[in-house]
Write a structure and sequence with these properties.
Layout (H helix, E strand, L loop, with lengths): L18 H5 L3 H6 L15 H9 L10 H5 L2 E3 L2 H16 L8 H8 L2 E5 H19 L28 H17 L13 H18 L3 H12 L8 E6 L4 E6 L5 H8 L3 E3 L6 E3 H25 L4 E7 L1 H15 L12 E2 L2 E4 L5 E2 L1 H7 L7 E6 L14 H10 L7 H6 L8 E6 L16 E5 L9 H13 L4 H5 L10 H6 L1 H50 L1 H12 L4 H5 L4 H13 L1
Parallel strand pairs: 4-7, 7-8, 7-9, 9-11, 11-12
Antiparallel strand pairs: 1-13, 2-3, 3-4, 5-6, 6-10, 12-13
Helix pairs in contact: 5-20, 8-9, 8-11, 10-12, 11-12, 12-13, 20-21
Amino acid sequence: LIEEEEEEGEKKQQEGYNWVSKILRVNSIWTSGEKNPIPSAVDVNGEESELCAVDDDCGDEEIEFDRESFSKLLRKVPLEEARSYEKLSYLGYLAYSISQIKTESLLKHHGLRFITSSLEKKQQQASKSETKESSSSHGGSGSGSGDVVKPEERNPDGNNHRISVSIAYQIAASAASYLHSHTKTILRFGDSSHGNDDMASIIATDSVTAVVAAKEEVKQAVADDLNSTKSSPCDWFVCDDDRTATRFFVIQGSESLASWQANLLFEPVPFEGLDVLIHRGIYEAAKGMYELMLPLICSHLKRFGKGAKFRFTGHSLGGSLSLVINLMLLVRGVVPQNSGGGGGLLPVIAFGSPSVMCGGDRLLRKLGLPRSHVRSVTMHRDIVPRAFSCSYPKHVAEFLKAVNGNFRTLPCLNHQKHLYGHMGEFLILQPDSRISPSHDLLPSGSGFYLLTCPEPEGSDPDKTIHVARSAFMNSPHPLEILSDRSAYGSGGTIHRDHDMITYLKSVRNVIRKELNRLRRERRNRRAAWMVMRRKGGELLSLSGVMIRSGGENLKKLRKLVTSGNLHLIVVLLIPAKLLILGMYNLVKF
């Protein structure tokens, strides 16, 4: 969608307006000067470059990767680990249909006892609200203030029909939510008209511009709404594995208006007062969900004490929220890290989730956590994990800095050309080629890999992983995916490569493939053993006859030895005396 063919980035393309080209007109805001620039909220004690450098060594060194060199950095996920990921991906799939979860089946087939969900919390809060309203309904009539236009929302010319900026934000988020929910019907492949393209362009333009360029009081109002315990941007449910004292918190991805409010408020702010920056919308949403989940954390701790374990997992936005809530529990000292034998917080497992922190690996080191505490599973061509971690074109970065001062001092954007960096371990999932074409950097066929650096060869392994991951996240680049009209619609690659069901099916396919390989190996070993037993039986019979009948049959043994089958005698554990006697007669003849 973006063609860097002009420096000013303000001209129309020959066919229609793409949304980035339209919003780049806002570049004039910066060049003409701002009267009241937004104060930066990301001053990290003057350590901007260090924040980025410590995280991933933000050098400009480039390493070219092809399939052969990239594959050397891949380690197949073991079968038992893959099975645990299959279980969590299944729970992530259930999170999109919580009301249809069969609790008896969940317990019988997966050993998990359903505890509660955000749907139950909403029902409880609705009941409380109805009770409160009923008790206060006799307290007098309302003033009708909801229909009054506030003075600050009036136009200077006295026109009272002006829509407030906060309402405009709600409309923008609603438009984005509408666009997401209709990805199966708009921009169908083969549609030659540009009507739908224009609609998507307008929605995306207005959504991004309204949020990024909104005033601080508007964004704070939205942040307060996300932070509220009255509503969750994403639905979630909780279940227990009583055998291991593990409580699972499973969070779904973007499905509601509130989730898109969180998505669009993506400016950086400090995390928990630390020198780490985080996606503001997701952070605010996590705060509200944290308060809702805290009683469930405390009740599990009360029941199992130091043996209580907690597992957070989720898909898309839900995976990012799982990560943030997990780290909040650690930073605030509510739950310790799992040390391996006792209780505590188990590693976060996120499927298809966008990166939301700048300085994430640095935070893990500061908290004394291994990189394995955060495990991100990314489909080979999924656009969502790439959204904030791909290289941003210069004019897009300039636009963000022009309309929002917080982006001007964002280390990841200034030094690595992306908004937020990956943290923890990076796992790549590739489905069967019948579902989606193999990635150019991955071995052909389905596979599940951990990106690692087993042989440093004198280089920094962390830096090698960082460069390799960056190459993967930019291939294909999100703009390349979006520019393909076949990416949209019910059979489009965007929906296909990000859908939770695709993750679940792909993990199961990898497991099935590995089990079939193991079965073939067992069959081959069994067949080889049968051949050895058959030949060994012939040798044993021959040795007995040979000892009784003398030299004529020992010639047959010599012939058998020269054929290379003598080792079968040892396998059959022939008594040592017979073996020595036979060898003596063989040499004699």
